[in-house]
Write a structure and sequence with these properties.
Layout: E1 4-7, H1 15-23, E2 26-29, E3 43-48, E4 51-56, H2 80-92, H3 98-105, H4 116-131, E5 136-139, E6 151-152, H5 163-166, H6 180-183, H7 191-198, H8 202-208
Parallel strand pairs: 1-2, 1-6, 2-5
Antiparallel strand pairs: 3-4
């Protein structure tokens, strides 16, 4: 493990992502990569009553096929803010800490952020304050090519990549989940799942999930 890591931006990022924010001295979030759909950049996965549920933020189409992440605008299509917030309420209203954090999360789904990366950053900063971690997060000024000098997780932390294969330093520590009796423990869900279920003890779970 190097002292620096390169990450993509992420919407309510998975637990794996937050273990990196805890483990590394310097964190760089890439702003100049080409936007790719079906990634954690605009998607999170929570535990709903029927099992894992993917929540995706719609984005506006650009004038060209390739767009930089920093330029990706959020679309208002489908009333997604209302749908995402209702999904979080439905999934976690009976979790131990949802009521404590709900009043902080709700305004984020009422405000219209023009750019995806700004919305993601706002959530990340808030969650870090709740968990009581203070990562040194910097943002790239150009596309980073420093793969040999920095641990590059931009495409490793990905909904379609098995963390047990691509990230052996991440060993998810089981914790209480609302629907655990129904589905068993579901690892590496959105940080929202960990926070609403474990509250201040989220930090302990993160620490215990790092090899």
């Amino acid at each position: 493990m190097k002292s620096e890591i390169l990450l993509s931006t992420a919407y309510l990022a998975p637990v794996e992502y937050y273990t990196k924010l805890l483990a590394y001295k310097n964190i760089y979030v890439e702003r100049y990569d080409n936007y790719i759909k079906q990634t954690y950049r605009n998607r999170c996965i929570i535990a709903a009553a029927d099992g894992p549920l993917s929540l995706t933020i719609p984005t506006e189409k650009g004038e060209t096929a390739k767009q930089l992440v920093k330029d990706i605008r959020i679309s208002d299509h489908g009333n997604w803010r209302h749908m995402h917030w209702n999904a979080l309420v439905s999934a976690y209203k009976n979790s131990p800490f949802f009521e404590y954090y709900a009043d902080y999360f709700a305004p984020l789904y009422e405000k219209k952020y023009p750019f995806l990366i700004d919305f993601n950053d706002e959530i990340c900063n808030m969650v870090c304050s709740f968990i009581d971690i203070e990562p040194e997060i910097l943002y790239t000024d150009s596309y980073s090519m420093n793969g040999d000098q920095i641990d590059d997780f931009r495409e490793i932390i990905h909904p379609k990549r098995d963390f047990s294969t691509f990230d052996p330093d991440f060993i998810p520590k089981p914790y209480y989940q609302v629907f655990k009796n129904r589905f068993g423990f579901l690892p590496n869900l959105s940080i929202a799942d960990l926070l609403f279920n474990m509250g201040p003890e989220s930090l302990i779970v993160l620490r215990d999930s790092i090899r």
